[in-house]
Amino acid sequence: MGPAGGAARPGPFFGVYLLYCLNPRHRGRVYVGFTVNPARRVQQHNGGRKKGGAWRTSGRGPWEMVLIVHGFPSAVAALRFEWAWQHPRASRRLAHVGPRLRSEAAFAFHLRVLRRAGPSADPESERDRDADASCALCARSFQDEEGPLCCPHPGCRLRAHMICLAEEFLQEEPGQLLPLEGQCPGCKNSVLWGDLIWLCRMGDEEEEEDLELEEEHWTDMLET
Fold this sequence. Notes:
CATH topology of the largest domain: GIY-YIG endonuclease
Oligomer: single chain
């Protein structure tokens, strides 16, 4: 049963976060990472390597987790997004962003990359789409990566591009970079963005074996 019936259980949380350094000696530094538990992860970063923090954040805290992108259908999707956010020039979907400007702070650059990435939870994935259907908001056909998001409420037949629905939701949240919640244009019911992504895309993901995912990557060992 969908969320309208009150019986749906939330799926696993996969998030990609942005840390900002509050230490005056290192102020302005940022760090992008993946986590399944934001509260625990920021404690690990502030606790240093012995507490499970990353090499690049150890001894440079305190760190504040200022932004979390979530709603990913799988850990793999979140890790792909993390890698693309960390390496926009190497990502074919973010190559248009351009390099960091000399006058641009690291925090501002990462926000610019995120804006250009759009609200998609998985910028590197490719899925089969229904090319014959059209978006209820812009009337354009769904092609390639532009497949539809579908309202999870029973009886609602809304199908829309992710970017179109995100822009619709953001009209009520002008201060947000990514939508958090909005009213479905079709059935007028309230929908959480994370629930929308998870519920509408779970069927597109093949079941994967349970893997132990290390929250610290080999790239943490490389000094930048």
